[in-house]
Amino acid sequence: MREFLSQNSVEYEERNIAKEPRWRESLKELTGEAVVPVLLVDGRQVIGLDERRMADALGLDHFVAESNRDGLEAPPELAGLPQEGDDATSTALIHLARRLQKEMDYNAAKDGSPYRDGQHDGMRYARDAILRILTGTYEPEGMVIERGKP
Questions:
Q1: Which of 32-36, 90-94, 106-110 has the least mean pLDDT?
Q2: Cβ contacts of residue 112 below 8 Å, gap of 6+?
Q3: Crossing angle of helices 114-135/88-108, nearest 10°?
Q4: Model pTM?
């Protein structure tokens, strides 16, 4: 989303819910869940990377949308992980986080496409969730498909 907004000269305030708990809580209050990315324009929410809906919400007649490569680099938390965890589960999660990063590195070397960018988003989400589990900052939350269910 950052790339889309920058490419189209749209000023914005970025609120990273992985780095700032208050933004995570604010997003949950606003949308009922912690799903990203979310674009909020004059009370209108656009969830996900739908360029046409983002452009419509922003009032853009013409827009630029190029491949998303942001966030593919390994975060510092990944480099700070030990080789193995204290138990089999944490060792497996460490391995999975590193494996996801290798997949992202491999995919980043290929040409961009909406499909590949969608893969990146899914892998980033999984990698970052695993890192939050391993660093003790993970908070369970409902999935989009569970919305409205007890």
A1: 106-110
A2: 66, 67, 68, 69
A3: 150
A4: 0.52
Place of tokens 């138990």: 87
Residue-wise pLDDT for 61-85, tens only, equals 988 876 556 667 888 889 999 999 9
C-beta neighbour count of 56 within 10 angstroms: 15
Locate the domains of the chain by residue range: 2-66, 76-140
DSSP labels, 26-50:
HHHHHHSS--S-EEEETTEEEES--
Angle at 62 between CA 58 and CA 68, to 5 degrees: 75
**Widest Cα–Cα separation across the chain:** 54
Alpha carbon dihedral 86, 89, 90, 95, in 10-degree steps, equals: 120
Task: Give me the residues paired with residue 45 across strands.
Answer: 40
> Which amino acid, one-letter code, is at 98?
R
Question: What mean pLDDT is predicted for residues 10-39?
Answer: 84
Give the fold, CATH level 3, of 2-66: Glutaredoxin (3.40.30)
- A 10 A CB-CB count for 24 gives 19
**Within 13 Å of residue 48, how many CA atoms lie on the same side as its CB?**
8
